[in-house]
Amino acid sequence: MTPETLFLICNFGILPAWLLLAVAPSWSWTQRLVHAAWIPLVLGVLYAYLLLSAADVPEGASFASLTGVMLFFTSPQATLAGWVHYLVFDLFVGAWEVRDARRRGIGHGWVLPCLGLTLMFGPSGLLLYLLLRFILVRATGLEESSASDAARRA
Questions:
Q1: Residue 21 near residue 59, CB atoms below 8 Å
Q2: ∠ Cα 4 6 12 (to 5°)
Q3: Cβ contact 71:60 at 8 Å
Q4: Coil, helix or strand for 10?
C-alpha cells in the first residue's frame, strides 16, 4: 500500500472518532471506541511499522537539529509517520478534554470549539481548553482524580 493511500485511510479513518467526541460524547460506543486504547494501538502499530521500515530516510536526518528534522520530512514514509503521530496525540488530547470537562461539570457546548481547534491545530485547542477550564472552574492541575478520591483527601 502506498504512503498516499495509508495517509487517506488514516486521515478519513480518524474523523468518525472526532465526530463521536463532538456529537455523542457520553454514548456507550464513544466510550468503547474513542476512550479505549484501540485507536492509539492500531495507529501506534502503523507508526512503529513506518518508522522501522523506512528505507528512504535521507542521510543527515536526525532529531539533533532543525535541519536534521526537516530532512526526515523529505521522505514520504517518514512524513506519514509524523502525521500518524499527530493524529494519535491530537485525538488522545481531544478525548481527555471531553473526559476532563465531564469530571469537572463543564458543559459540552463549551468544549466543542476546543475540540475543533485540537483537531486542526493540536496545542492551540489544548491551550483554549485549559484557559476555559481555568475561567469556568479555576482548575489548574492536570490530575485525573475522581470525586471519590477528592472526598477521601478532604
A1: no
A2: 100
A3: yes
A4: helix
Which pLDDT tens digit goes with each residue over 86-139? Answer: 999 999 999 999 999 999 999 999 999 999 999 999 999 999 999 999 999 998
* Residue 149 confidence (pLDDT) above 70: no
Is pTM, for the whole model, over 0.70?
A: yes
| Residue in the structure block whose three cell numbers are 491551550 | 127
Helices (H), the chain: 3-23, 28-33, 38-53, 66-72, 76-104, 108-121, 123-137, 147-153
Burial tier of 134 (Cβ tally within 10 Å: 0-12, 13-18, 19+): exposed
| Cell numbers for 36 | 479505549
The domain segmentation of the chain, as residue ranges, is: 3-153
Is the backbone of residue 145 left (phi > 0), alpha (psi -120 to 50) or beta?
beta
